From TrEMBL:
GO molecular function, one term: ATP binding
UniProt keyword terms in alphabetical order: Amino-acid transport, ATP-binding, Nucleotide-binding, Transport
Listed name of the protein: Branched-chain amino acid transport system ATP-binding protein
Keyword presence, ATP-binding: yes
PANTHER family in the record: HIGH-AFFINITY BRANCHED-CHAIN AMINO ACID TRANSPORT ATP-BINDING PROTEIN, HIGH-AFFINITY BRANCHED-CHAIN AMINO ACID TRANSPORT ATP-BINDING PROTEIN LIVF
Keyword Nucleotide-binding attributed: yes
Length: 233
C-alpha cells in the first residue's frame, strides 16, 4: 500500500479532532475525502504531511512508519501537499514559486517547468508575475504545479475548488487525470460531492473526526452519502 493510516488520532490541545481514522491509498489510485465543515479532513491531511506529528505507526508510507516525521521529511518521501489557501510565497514570481517545489525533492520524473506550463499554459504567460498578482484560480494552478515539481508519488489536494468560479474549477479538475497519467496517486479533499465522485476511484466520508463511509465512487448512492455526511439514516 502506498499510504495507510491506522487508528489515527489527532488533537488540538484538549480538543480531539480525529478518533481512529483508517484510510488506504494504493499506488496510482485517486481517493476522495468528503465531509462537512469541521469533519476533520484538513486535520487528516496535516497528520499525513507531518504538520501535526503523531505516533510513528499511525501513518505508513509503503509499510514504513512516517507518523512522527517532519513535513520536509514526508515531502522527501514523495508525498506532496497542495494546501488549503494555496500558501504561495508572495514575494516570488510564478516561476520562482514553481522552482522551489523542485528544490524540495530532486528525483527524475515527468514533472518539470515545461510540463507544468503545458498542463497550465496561462502560467507560462504569467511566469514573471508575482504569485499574489494572479487570480485565485491561477494561484491554485501555481500551488498544484509547485507540488508536482517534486515529482510526487502522492499528491494531496486540500479543497482545491474552494472559492473558485465553476469554469476555473473545471480547468483545475481537468488537470488531475493528466497528473495520474504521470503515475501519481491523488487524494482530493472536497466539499463538492459531485466533483469528488467524478474524479475518484474510491471515496471516504468523514463526520466529527471519524470515517462514516468507505465506498467505490461508481457504486455509492446519494442516499448512502447523505447518511454518512449528515449522520441521518
Ligand atoms: P473545513 O472544511 O472547514 O476545513 P475540515 O473537515 O477540514 O473542515 P478540520 O479543519 O480538520 O475540518 O477541523 C476539525 C476540527 O478541528 C474542527 O472542529 C475544528 O474546529 C478543529 N480545529 C481545526 N484546526 C484547529 C486548530 N488549529 N486549533 C483548534 N481546533 C482546530
Amino acid at each position: 500500500m502506498l499510504l495507510e493510516t491506522r487508528a489515527l488520532t489527532a488533537s488540538y490541545g484538549q480538543f480531539r479532532a480525529l478518533f481512529g481514522v483508517d484510510i488506504t491509498v494504493a499506488a496510482g489510485e485517486c481517493v476522495a475525502i468528503i465531509g462537512a465543515n469541521g469533519a476533520g479532513k484538513s486535520t487528516l491531511m496535516r497528520s499525513i504531511t507531518g504538520v501535526i506529528r503523531n505516533e510513528p505507526g499511525m501513518v505508513l508510507h509503503r509499510g514504513e512508519p512516517i507518523g512522527a516525521l517532519s513535513s520536509a521529511e514526508v515531502m522527501k518521501r514523495g508525498i506532496a501537499m497542495v494546501p488549503e489557501g494555496r500558501k504561495l510565497f508572495p514575494s516570488l514570481t510564478v516561476e520562482e514559486n514553481l522552482l522551489i517545489g523542485g528544490q524540495m525533492r530532486k528525483v527524475p520524473g515527468p514533472w518539470n517547468l515545461d510540463a507544468v506550463y503545458e498542463l497550465f499554459p496561462i502560467l507560462r504567460e504569467r511566469r514573471n508575475n508575482s504569485g499574489t498578482a494572479l487570480s485565485g484560480g491561477q494561484q491554485q494552478m501555481v500551488a498544484i504545479g509547485r507540488a508536482l515539481m517534486s515529482n510526487p508519488e502522492l499528491l494531496l489536494c486540500d479543497e482545491i475548488s474552494l472559492g473558485l468560479a465553476p469554469v476555473v474549477i473545471r480547468d483545475i479538475y481537468a488537470a488531475l487525470p493528466k497528473v495520474r497519467a504521470g503515475g501519481a496517486a491523488i487524494v482530493v479533499v472536497e466539499q463538492d460531492i459531485g466533483k469528488a465522485l467524478a474524479v475518484a476511484d474510491r471515496v471516504y466520508c468523514m463526520m466529527e473526526g471519524r470515517v462514516t463511509l468507505t465506498a467505490k465512487a461508481a457504486d455509492v448512492s446519494r442516499q448512502q452519502i447523505h447518511a454518512a455526511y449528515f449522520g441521518e439514516a
